[in-house]
C-alpha cells in the first residue's frame, strides 16, 4: 500500500499545471523526433541537457520521460509510412507495417501500433510502479562488489546482444570505457589521459560523445548513402478505423508483446531491439496464417510495437532503482541525473520521492496524451516526413553544434564532436554498434568507483567478487553471455564443415557417413 | 563503389586504431607518476582498459583478414557528400569565435544542405540564417546561455 500512497503523491506532483505542461511538451517533442529520421530520443535528451540546466529536476525528468515514451510512439509512424525505421526499436515494425501501407492499410497499421503502444505502455508502467520498489529493496542488499558485478553484466549484455560481431561490439564498448578514463580521477585527484589539455581535465562529456555518434556520425553516414537510396512515402487513404477482424487479431499480440517487452527491458539486456524481434518470432509461430508475415500481417505490427513500448518502461526500472542504464537513452538520462547532482538508486527514492514518483505518475498521463496525439492527429505527424532531407539534416547539425558548444562555451568540445562524429561514421560504415560506446562511457567510471570501493573494504583482496554469492552469480552470467555465443558459433562452424564434408562425400558417391548435427 | 576489400581495409583501420589507442593509454599511464595511496590506485583501470583494447583490436584485425565483412555484396558511398558535411563542421569550429555563431552556423547549414544535394544556395543560406539568428536570440536573451557574437563584431561594436 506504501507504493500506492507514493504513486498517489506522485500524481499530485505530475498533475500540477506546470508539470502537465512539461509532460505535454515532452510527449510532443518525443513523437516528433520519433517520426523524424536521423534524430532519436537519446540525441534529443542529450541536446536538451544544457537548456534544462536551470529547470526544476522534477519537471526536466517528466519531460525526458515524455520524450522517451513519445519517441516509441512516433517511431512506428516512420516505420510504417516510409521504408526506413525511425527508431531502432521499430526495425521489425517496418517489415509488415510498410507492407500494410503499400496495400493501403497504413491507417490500420498506425492504429494498431498506437493503441498497442498505449495498452503496453500502461500495463508496463503499472509493472514499473510495483517492480521499482522491489528492486530498491534488493539494491539495499548490494555492496560495492555486487554493484560492480551488476555493471559488468550490464556492459556485457549491451555489447553481446547488439550487432552481428562480438569483436565489433566489444571494440565499441572499450572505446567508450577509454573515453570515460579521460579527466581527473575522482578519488585521488590525479589527471588521467588529459595530455596537458586543460579542457580535458573535466573529462569528455557524455553529451558530446552521444551527439557526435548519433547526430554527426549518423548524418555523415546518411549523406554518404543519400544518392543511392530512394524513399517512398505512402499517403493515408481509405477507412481510418480498424475493423472487427483487425481488433481480434491485435489484442493478443499487444498483451504478449507487453509480457516480452517489460521484463527484457528491465533486465540489463540492452533496450528494445531484442523484445521486438522476439515478439515478431512468437507471433509468427502462433499465427493462424504465418505465410502472411512479411506481406502485411497486422499481428507483426501489433506485437513488436507493444513490446518496444513495454521495454521503454522496463528500462526505467533499473535506471531509477539501481542507477543502471541498459540503453543509450537511459545512459543519457543517467548523465542528466548527474548534471543535477543526483544519483539514481535506493537513496533517490528516499531523498527525492517527488521526483521519482512524479516521473512515474507522469508516464501514465503521458500515455494518455500520446494516444490522443497519435490516433486523431496522426495526419499532422505524417506532414513532418515531408520536410526535405537537406534541410532536416542541416538543422540537426546546427542544433548538435549548438548543444555541444553551449555545454562549456568552448571550441574544444566542437573539435571533440567532430572527431567523435568521424569515428561514429566509420563505425556505421563497418556495422559497429554505437550504443555500447555510450553506455561504456557513462558506466565505466561508475564501475571503477565501485571496484575500488570493494577492494578498499576487502583491503585489496580481489576474491570478494567471487566469494560474495550475488556478485559471483552476476559475473558468471556475464561470462556466459560472452562465451556462450562464441562456443555456439564455433560448434555451428564445425557442424557446417562436417556437413560440407558429407555433401562432398555424397557427391563422390561414398555416402553413408551422416554427421550428427 | 566500395567493395568488400575496402571494407576489410576499414575494419583493419578500426582494429589498428584501437590497438594504437590501447598502447597509448598503457604508455601514458606508465609515464604518469602515481600519487594515490589507496589500495587500488588510479592506474589499474587504465591498464585493464588498455589490455582489453589490445585484445579486441587483435581480434578485429583477425576478423578483417578472414572474417565476414559488414556489407555483403559491396556498398556505395558518396565521398563528396561526406567531405561537405565534415568540412562544414571544421569551418564552423574554426570560425565560430571569430565570426560568431550566426555566420558560422549559417555556413554549416548551407554545407550540409549541399551534401544532401540541394543546390539552391540563396534559399538555403536564408533558411540557415533564420535558424541561426532565431537560436541566437532564444539562447542569449531567453535562456541566458552565451553563443558567441564573434570577435569581429566586438571590434566594431564593443559592448562597454
Automatic annotation (TrEMBL), chain A:
Pfam families: TctA. Keywords: Membrane, Transmembrane, Transmembrane helix. The chain crosses the membrane at residues 20-49, 61-82, 109-132, 139-160, 166-184, 315-337, 357-378, 390-408, 414-443, 464-488. Residues 20-438 form the DUF112 domain. This is Tripartite tricarboxylate transporter permease. It comes from Azospirillum doebereinerae. The lineage of its organism: Bacteria, Pseudomonadati, Pseudomonadota, Alphaproteobacteria, Rhodospirillales.
TrEMBL record, chain B:
This is Tripartite tricarboxylate transporter TctB family protein. It comes from Azospirillum doebereinerae. The keyword Nucleus does not apply. Residues 14-148 form the DUF1468 domain. It comes from the Bacteria. The chain crosses the membrane at residues 12-31, 43-61, 81-109, 121-143. Keywords: Membrane, Transmembrane, Transmembrane helix.
Amino acid at each position: 500500500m506504501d507504493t500506492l500512497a507514493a504513486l498517489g503523491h506522485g500524481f499530485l506532483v505530475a498533475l500540477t499545471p506546470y508539470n502537465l505542461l512539461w509532460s505535454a511538451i515532452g510527449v510532443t517533442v518525443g513523437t516528433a523526433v520519433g517520426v523524424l529520421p536521423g534524430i532519436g530520443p537519446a540525441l534529443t535528451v542529450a541536446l536538451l541537457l544544457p537548456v534544462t540546466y536551470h529547470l526544476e529536476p522534477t519537471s526536466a525528468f517528466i519531460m525526458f520521460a515524455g520524450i522517451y515514451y513519445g519517441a516509441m510512439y512516433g517511431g512506428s509512424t516512420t516505420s510504417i509510412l516510409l521504408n526506413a525505421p525511425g527508431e531502432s526499436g521499430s526495425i521489425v515494425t517496418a517489415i509488415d507495417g510498410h507492407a500494410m501501407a503499400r496495400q493501403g492499410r497504413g491507417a490500420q497499421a498506425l492504429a494498431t501500433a498506437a493503441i498497442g503502444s498505449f495498452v503496453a505502455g500502461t500495463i508496463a508502467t503499472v509493472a514499473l510502479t510495483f517492480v521499482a520498489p522491489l528492486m530498491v529493496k534488493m539494491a539495499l542488499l548490494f555492496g560495492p562488489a555486487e554493484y560492480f558485478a551488476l555493471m559488468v553484466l550490464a556492459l556485457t549484455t549491451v555489447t553481446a546482444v547488439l550487432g552481428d560481431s562480438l569483436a565489433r561490439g566489444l571494440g565499441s564498448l572499450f572505446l567508450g570505457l577509454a573515453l570515460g578514463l579521460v579527466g581527473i580521477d575522482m578519488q585521488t585527484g590525479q589527471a588521467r589521459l588529459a595530455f596537458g589539455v586543460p579542457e580535458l581535465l573535466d573529462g569528455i562529456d557524455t553529451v558530446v560523445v552521444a551527439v557526435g555518434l548519433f547526430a554527426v556520425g549518423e548524418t555523415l553516414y546518411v549523406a554518404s548513402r543519400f544518392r543511392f537510396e530512394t524513399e517512398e512515402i505512402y499517403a493515408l487513404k481509405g477507412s481510418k478505423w480498424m475493423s472487427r477482424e483487425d481488433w481480434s487479431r491485435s489484442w493478443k499480440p499487444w498483451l504478449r508483446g507487453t509480457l516480452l517487452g517489460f521484463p527484457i527491458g528491465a533486465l540489463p539486456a540492452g533496450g528494445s531491439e531484442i523484445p521486438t524481434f522476439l515478439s515478431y518470432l512468437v507471433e509468427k509461430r502462433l499465427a493462424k496464417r504465418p505465410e502472411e508475415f512479411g506481406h502485411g500481417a497486422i499481428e507483426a505490427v501489433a506485437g513488436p510495437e507493444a513490446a518496444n513500448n513495454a521495454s521503454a518502461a522496463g528500462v526505467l526500472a533499473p535506471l531509477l532503482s539501481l542507477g543502471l542504464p541498459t540503453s543509450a537513452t537511459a545512459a543519457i538520462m543517467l548523465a542528466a541525473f548527474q548534471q543535477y547532482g543526483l544519483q539514481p538508486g535506493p537513496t533517490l527514492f528516499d531523498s527525492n520521492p517527488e521526483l521519482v514518483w512524479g516521473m512515474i505518475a507522469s508516464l501514465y498521463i503521458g500515455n494518455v496524451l500520446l494516444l490522443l496525439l497519435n490516433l486523431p492527429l496522426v495526419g499532422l505527424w505524417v506532414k513532418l516526413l515531408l520536410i526535405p532531407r537537406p534541410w532536416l539534416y542541416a538543422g540537426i547539425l546546427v542544433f548538435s553544434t549548438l548543444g555541444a558548444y553551449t555545454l562549456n562555451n568552448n571550441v574544444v568540445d566542437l573539435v571533440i564532436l567532430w572527431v567523435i562524429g568521424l569515428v561514429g561514421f566509420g563505425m556505421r560504415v563497418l556495422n559497429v554498434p554505437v550504443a555500447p560506446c555510450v553506455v561504456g562511457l557513462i558506466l565505466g567510471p561508475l564501475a571503477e568507483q565501485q571496484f575500488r570501493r570493494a577492494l578498499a573494504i576487502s583491503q585489496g583482496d580481489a576474491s570478494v567478487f567471487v566469494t560474495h554469492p550475488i556478485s559471483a552469480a552476476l559475473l558468471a552470467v556475464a561470462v556466459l553471455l560472452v562465451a556462450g555465443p562464441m562456443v555456439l558459433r564455433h560448434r555451428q562452424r564445425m557442424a557446417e564443415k562436417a556437413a560440407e564434408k558429407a555433401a562432398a562425400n555424397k557427391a563422390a558417391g561414398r555416402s553413408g557417413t551422416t554427421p550428427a548435427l | 563503389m566500395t567493395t568488400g576489400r575496402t571494407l576489410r581495409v576499414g575494419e583493419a583501420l578500426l582494429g589498428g586504431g584501437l590497438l594504437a589507442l590501447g598502447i597509448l593509454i598503457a604508455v601514458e599511464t606508465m609515464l604518469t607518476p602515481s600519487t594515490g595511496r589507496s589500495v587500488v590506485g588510479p592506474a589499474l583501470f587504465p591498464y585493464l582498459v588498455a589490455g582489453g583494447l589490445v585484445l579486441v583490436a587483435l581480434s578485429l584485425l583477425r576478423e578483417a583478414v578472414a572474417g565476414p565483412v559488414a556489407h555483403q555484396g559491396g556498398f556505395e558511398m558518396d565521398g563528396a557528400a561526406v567531405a561537405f558535411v565534415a568540412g562544414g563542421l571544421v569551418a564552423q569550429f574554426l570560425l565560430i569565435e571569430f565570426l560568431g555563431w550566426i555566420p558560422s552556423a549559417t555556413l554549416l547549414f548551407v554545407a550540409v544542405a549541399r551534401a544532401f544535394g540541394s543546390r539552391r544556395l540563396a534559399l538555403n543560406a536564408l533558411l540557415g540564417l533564420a535558424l541561426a539568428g532565431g537560436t541566437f536570440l532564444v539562447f542569449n536573451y531567453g535562456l541566458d546561455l552565451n553563443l558567441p557574437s564573434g570577435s569581429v563584431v566586438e571590434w566594431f561594436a564593443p559592448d562597454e
